[in-house]
From TrEMBL, chain A:
Belongs to the ATG7 family. Residues 17-326 form the Ubiquitin-like modifier-activating enzyme Atg7 N-terminal domain. The lineage of its organism: Eukaryota, Metazoa, Chordata, Craniata, Vertebrata. The gene is atg7. It is found in: Cytoplasm; Preautophagosomal structure. This is Ubiquitin-like modifier-activating enzyme ATG7. Residues 525-552 have a biased composition (Low complexity). Residues 343-617 form the THIF-type NAD/FAD binding fold domain. The active site is at C589.
TrEMBL record, chain B:
Residues 65-96 are annotated as: Disordered. Belongs to the ATG10 family. It comes from Parambassis ranga (Indian glassy fish). This is Ubiquitin-like-conjugating enzyme ATG10. The keyword rRNA-binding does not apply.
Length: 720, 252
């Protein structure tokens, strides 16, 4: 311990008395309160403020001599904790770091020392000796970063030649009997009672036989009537056995100033008073026999010291970074994460939250679905959310689209993508949200009116390709079917996970698109697929999921691996086009029961989370309704392909369907054309009627063969 | 104090009675527990929403890795590395004009003990609250450096005695979690209470079989406290045995 090394140096008598300096101890509450004061009261006021700390003489061995400041420090007239001594100080809170650095520390110290000296000379310190234990606190509070710079000073006036000990220090129990110690304790308690406090910083002691008398400092003249041995007591916060704490220093100056000419050697009792395991003891208090030096010039303020060293032992300030516990934004972030972690601690120990939180989500559409999806993503702690929408907020939106308010509709309405980002940041500043006010080109919606519209469409396609590349999951949340085509094609080509949600009046579908195998192996399998698609695959895959009953369902639709799953368009036997003509159940009516978007939006996110928890991610085998009784594949349960909901029956089913080899969006021929021809191919799709894609994929032929249109819908009695 | 039908649940009045008894003993022993109540207005005196609180300072060695932790009482050492390296890096502005201070600040009368870079003093704050959902007491705590910075969960974990740490980590449901203090709304750490009933049951059963005064909160604290560095003096137990003190605290 540190005390051992210092004890070694004081082996001989007639050695100088050395004091243990105070260490500053600041509670978090102090910084909170300083922040409040700075923001509400001080503002730019740099004038010195009065604050209060305290010190304690009951610490166990090994703790440093502390001066503690807590949140109550600004309430100077407030109570001091029981059995502690108050210390009053001056707070200098600067407005800038520069002012903190350039403040004249020497002048501050000398000013404070002068005040102590004046109080000694005037006799004020005799009446109220707590003046001897003052401190300075210089601070700069950087409330943007919640960094607090601070430097304490505990001013001590110095004797030029130090103070000589005439005897080795002794622990009380070595020089006093148990009775004498008990008498001392009794006398001290009596003094406290008389003074109406629980701690007395300085006092006078007189031994009379086995009895002990004590008196306050101001009664010196009447207490020490003869040339008897002079003994003073000091409430001592130090725990070292060879050294007194700081409060004794200025007391000795006061004594030398007042009675230096009369007193040569004197005894100091460093009074320590601790309770351990229920027993109180003062026998570890230390007595020092010292020669009280004379002050060379009793009218001039002595030299002073007292700036605290920093943790590295150098003369310099300290800094504490409290952003973790004070910055509201950091608090919000850690609370959000904490809330999610509780899920792991309590319920789902194997939940991989990092996978969810770090997922970058692209939300195509910022309407009823987009708003609800965004909010659920935030609930999962997802930080990276990007919106794409070209609409403005209209008066009917705010009641159904929870990211918008009435104000957002005024003046023509704000752009949805931009307003959604603003609102997300207000809800949770830790979010990393971006918005793109742009259109997504659609099949059957020509872009070739002019060179300008064509190049605009090309830029939009490039932007969308870039966005899809930069994100991990693409949510299709638009209000038209055909606007989902382009992102479906791009995402399938880039092997990005797609989660799609679409609403009818009281029905919805939430699904993940099949995730194609990586391109390298696909080159091989694509050839194999195309060559075999006419044989075994054609009978099954050319039949959309909805018309399954003709085939034994269990063998066909169970255990479909993720790369063989269909996309949104696989179930359709018409190509996307003008949706006013090709009506489908989820598009025939843009009005839904109001709760539907919340249900579907929430399910879309929960589906994404379950997929992410699966070791194979988007390649996970699709769970179906039949799997509800089986061991779930992830800690969160099933990973279905689709969730189809029927609000009229408050019922969901979990169908799974294979990718359709004539799909107008994800079939190999479409992806192949897109990858080879790029925008040229896309613009043909945009500018042509739906027959272009149907001809390309062979749907036209299929139509002629089966004449089975509109069969994709499921009827109620099918169990899939 | 607990239901004698062998169901060792602690109801809220029972919790308060136990706390009052513990407070009395703490007062006698100078152990530093206090009862804090939360804000009901002056008219709401009946609502006893409060908690027991104690703060303890511990000196922690930080010089090596893993390092010795010295209990303030000096009775026990443990292998820990409490503070992460970045926690020590205060990044203070070294450019402050300290040089011109050095000449007049040189103080031969000061002991050079204040600067002990090998040890760090931490202040631990312990709160005992009642959990209605578990019908048990719950131990909340947090720790601060002398600068006022609170320890992170990771730092708190490393301050746990390795024996306990293994034990806690193997059983995720009795682990330390970070949670909002239900009364203060500030982030605290807590020892999750879901195993409390499990280890209290045999103890209460035994005391019921051969009647012996048991203070539920005290017995519980003597189990969970040491895990997070809170030692309970044995004297509480010897104070408890004058049995008359207990019957008065029993609600029914």
């Amino acid at each position: 311990m540190a005390s051992d090394t210092s004890e070694a140096s004081s082996s001989t008598a007639d050695v100088k008395l050395q004091f243990a300096p105070f260490s500053s101890a600041l509670e978090a509450g102090f910084w909170h309160q300083l922040t409040q004061k700075k923001l509400n009261d001080y503002r730019l006021d740099e004038s010195p403020k009065c604050i209060k700390g305290y010190y304690y003489n009951g610490d166990p061995v090994g703790l440093p001599t502390r001066l503690t400041l807590e949140f109550s420090a600004f309430d100077v007239d407030g109570p001091t904790p029981a059995r502690c001594c108050p210390a009053v100080g001056t707070l200098y809170n600067t407005n800038t770091l520069d002012a903190f650095k350039t403040t004249d520390k020497k002048a501050l110290l000398e000013k404070e020392a002068k005040e102590i000296w004046d109080a000694i000379q005037s006799g004020a310190a005799l009446k109220d000796p707590s003046i001897l234990c003052r401190f300075i606190l210089l601070t700069f509070a950087d409330l943007k970063k919640y960094h607090f710079y601070y430097w304490f000073c505990f001013p001590a006036l110095c004797f030029p030649e130090g103070i000589k000990m005439v005897k080795q220090p002794s622990v009380l129990e070595q020089v006093f009997s148990a009775k004498e110690i008990a008498a001392l304790q009794e006398a001290y308690d009596g003094l406290c009672t008389k003074q109406g406090t629980t701690a007395v910083p300085y006092f006078l002691i007189k031994y009379a036989g086995e009895g002990v008398q004590m008196a306050p400092l101001r009664e010196w003249e009447t207490f020490f009537t003869h040339a008897e041995k002079v003994t003073v007591g000091v409430y001592d916060p130090c725990t070292l056995s060879q050294h007194p704490g700081w409060p004794l220093r200025n007391l000795l100056i006061l004594l030398a100033n007042q009675w230096g000419s009369k007193v040569d050697t004197m005894e100091v009792v460093c009074f320590r008073d601790r309770t351990l395991q229920g027993s109180r003891s003062i026998q570890h208090s230390v007595t020092f026999q010292v020669k009280l030096p004379e002050l060379p010039n009793n009218s001039v303020c002595p030299k002073s010291v007292g700036w605290e060293k920093n943790p590295k032992g150098a003369m310099g300030p300290r800094m504490v970074n409290l952003s973790e516990c004070m910055d509201p934004k950091r608090l919000a972030e850690s609370s959000v994460d904490l809330n999610l972690k509780l899920m792991r601690w309590r319920l789902v120990p194997s939940l991989d939250l990092d996978k969810v939180v770090s997922t970058k989500c692209l939300l195509l559409g910022a309407g009823t679905l987009g708003c609800n999806v965004a909010r659920t993503l935030m609930g999962w702690g997802v930080r990276h959310i990007t919106f794409v929408d070209n609409a403005k907020i209209s008066y009917s939106n705010p009641v159904r689209q929870p990211l918008y308010e009435f104000e957002d509709c005024l003046g023509g309405g704000k752009s949805k993508a931009i307003a959604a980002v603003d609102r997300l940041s207000k809800i949770f500043p830790g979010v990393n949200a971006e918005g793109y006010n742009m259109s997504i080109p659609m099949p059957g919606h020509p872009v070739n009116f002019s060179q300008a519209t064509l190049s605009q469409a090309q830029r939009d396609v490039e932007q969308l390709e870039k966005l899809i590349s930069e994100h991990d999951v693409v949510f299709l949340l638009m209000d038209t079917r055909e606007s989902r085509w382009l992102p479906t094609v791009i995402a399938a080509s880039k092997r990005k996970l797609v989660v799609n949600a679409a609403l009818g009046f009281d029905t919805f579908v939430v699904m993940r698109h099949g995730l194609k195998k990586p391109p390298v192996s696909q080159n091989v399998s694509a050839e194999a697929d195309s060559s075999t698609s006419c044989s075994s695959a054609s009978s099954s895959s050319s039949t959309p999921a909805g018309s399954a009953p003709s085939v034994p369902g269990s063998s066909l639709f169970s255990n479909i691996p993720g790369h063989k799953l269909g996309c949104y368009f696989c179930n359709d036997v018409v190509a996307p086009g003008d949706s006013t003509r090709d009506r489908t159940l989820d598009q025939q009516c843009t009005v839904s029961r109001p709760g539907l978007a919340m249900i579907a939006g929430a399910l879309a996110v929960e589906l994404m989370v379950s997929i992410l928890q699966h070791s194979e991610g988007g390649y996970a085998v699709a769970s179906s309704s039949d799997d509800r009784m089986n061991e779930p594949p992830t800690s969160l349960g099933l990973v279905p392909h689709q969730i189809r909901g029927f609000l009229s029956r408050f019922d969901n089913v979990l169908p799974a369907s294979l990718a359709f080899d004539k799909c107008t969006a994800c079939s190999p021929i479409v992806l192949d054309h897109y990858e080879r021809e790029g925008f040229n191919f896309l613009s043909k799709v945009f500018n042509s009627s739906h027959s272009f894609l149907e001809d390309l994929t062979g749907l036209t032929l299929l139509h002629q063969e089966t004449q089975a249109a509109e069969i994709w819908d499921m009827s109620d009695d099918e169990s899939i | 104090m607990f239901n004698k039908m062998s169901c060792p649940a602690l109801d809220e009045p029972g919790f308060h009675a136990c706390c009052q008894l513990l407070l009395q003993q703490s007062e006698q022993l100078g152990d530093g527990w206090s009862w804090l109540e939360l804000g009901g207005g002056p008219g709401e005196e009946g609502s006893e929403v409060g908690y027991l609180k104690k703060t303890v300072l511990r000196s922690v060695a930080v010089d090596s890795n893993p390092v010795q932790t010295q209990e303030a009482s000096g009775s026990e050492t443990e292998q820990t590395s409490i503070l992460q390296p970045e926690a020590q890096d205060t990044g203070e502005p070294a450019s402050l004009n300290a040089d011109d201070l050095n000449d007049y600040i040189k103080d031969e009368d000061a002991v050079c003990t204040a600067v002990d870079i090998n040890s760090q003093v931490l202040q631990y704050e312990y709160h005992i609250l009642y959990s209605c959902s578990y019908s048990t007491p719950v131990l909340y705590f947090r720790a601060f450096t002398m600068e006022g910075r609170s320890l992170t969960l990771q730092e708190v974990w490393s301050s746990i005695h390795p024996n306990y740490r293994l034990c806690l980590q193997n059983s995720p449901l009795t682990t330390i979690t970070q949670q909002e203090h239900p009364l203060l709304g500030q982030p605290f750490f807590m020892l999750h209470p879901c195993k409390t009933e499990e280890f209290m049951r045999p103890l209460l059963q035994a005391s019921h079989d051969q009647p012996r005064p048991v203070n539920y909160v005290l017995s519980w604290l003597s189990v969970v406290g040491p895990v997070v560095g809170l030692d309970i003096p044995l004297k509480y137990c010897t104070l408890l045995h004058p049995a008359s003190s207990l019957s008065s605290a029993e609600p029914d």
